[in-house]
Amino acid sequence: MKKIIGFVLFISAPFICSAQDWHVGLIAGISNYSGDLSEKRVDFRYTRPMVGIMVKKDMNRYLTLRAGFSFGMIAAADSTNKSIALQARNLSFRSNIWEGQLGAEWNILDIDEKGFTPYIFGGVALFSFYPWAKDVDGNKIALRRLSTEGQGLPQYPERGNQYALHQVSIPFGAGFKYLFTDRWTLGVEIGLRPTFTDYLDDVSTGYIDQNTLLAERGQLAVDMAYRGDEVGHKMPAGTYPLDGAQRGSAKHKDWYSFSGITVMYRFGSGSGGGGRSTNFSRCFKM
Q1: CATH number for the segment(s) 24-277
Q2: What would the DSSP string read from start to end of 186-248?
Q3: Which of 1, 16, 116, 216 is the most exposed place for a label (fewest CB within 10 A)?
Q4: Counting Cβ atoms within 10 Å, is residue 141 exposed (0-12), middle (13-18) or buried (19+)?
Q5: CA distance linking residue 167 with residue 124, whole number of Å
Q6: Which residues contact 137 (CB under 8 A, 6 or more apart)?
Q7: Could you state, in order of their start, the residue ranges of all structural domains in the chain?
Q8: pLDDT along the chain (286 residues), means of 10
């Protein structure tokens, strides 16, 4: 039995002990949104900046655990869509995204041998958002509290409570890392975030009765729920739609994405080729 255990340890040691390195660094790049206000899957005209910090730990030559905290911004507007129907709807939004994530990377190659490697990653994240838009006077208006689609109103129990501003997303994507020096790693990463909410943009289902919304939330809620009367000279101003008329679509949940350039500093006894052999020998030291 001891021989069997020893043999298993021997063949698994390069994977368990060869790269016990820590990495700390930054990611900086762009954020995007996909939802009811984006006519395309992603509208790059509304690309916004993002930045984050990351901590990683190599469990072996191919598996890396990761954690991070990021900040980005998302936005969209019907006014820039090609569809006449969407232009007539005339909705818009902006939101900051704060995200904390945990996950893992699978490195395709041994970066210490090749000097580079592509990788894929996945995980889970907790994020917060807060959609807002500007009114006709340029004032910043928080949208959630207005119940623009009847969320939280007793007359519309099927719409449920007001949506939570803290949600879960499932980060996944791919990247490429280059070992610039023994300590510094440069890379690029594309990361998608499907969410479990359809309200990143405060748009999901249908309009509610104008008079009910007016009585429950006031004139500002009515003004922000339907903005087709603000379209200007390009098309005739519309009137508030009937109760139940389509405002958005709940068929698909909203997404956001964080992509950028990564700069990581590696430290620990496992750094470099010498570190690998040192860790390997430690695994057999009884």
Answers
A1: 2.40.160.20
A2: EEEEEEEEEBS-S-TTS--SB---HHHHHHHH-HHHHHHH--GGG-GGGS----PPPTT-BSS
A3: 1
A4: middle
A5: 11
A6: none
A7: 24-277
A8: 47 47 96 93 92 96 97 95 90 98 97 95 98 95 97 94 97 97 95 97 96 96 93 67 94 96 85 42 42
